[in-house]
Design brief:
The protein is mostly beta strands. It has strands at about 10, 20, 25-30, 35-40, 50-55, 70-75.
């Protein structure tokens, strides 16, 4: 990373994790920190690229092979005990 830039990340949707994750496109992922399944869809928000949903919150079923979202580390939302 150049110029001390922090990579854009999206928070894991599980409150007890909330790590920053690198998500290249919408779809199903496994969190690289907690190992749980979630769905990321394009967000219409001005401040985030994706909205993420826990597995039980999204109606479509995941494919057989699901990529792992790269863990960028704890975020501001990660509980202190989880770090």
């Amino acid at each position: 990373m150049e110029n001390n830039e922090y990579p854009d990340g999206q928070l894991c949707p599980y409150d007890d994790c909330a790590h920053d994750l690198a998500i290249p496109e919408a779809g199903w992922y496994i969190c690289g920190a907690c190992g749980r399944l979630f769905y990321a869809r394009v967000s219409e928000s001005d401040y985030e690229d994706y909205s993420c949903y826990q597995e039980h919150e999204y109606k479509d079923k995941p494919p057989e092979q699901v990529p792992v979202a790269t863990d960028l580390g704890p975020s501001w939302g990660t509980p202190k005990k989880a770090e």
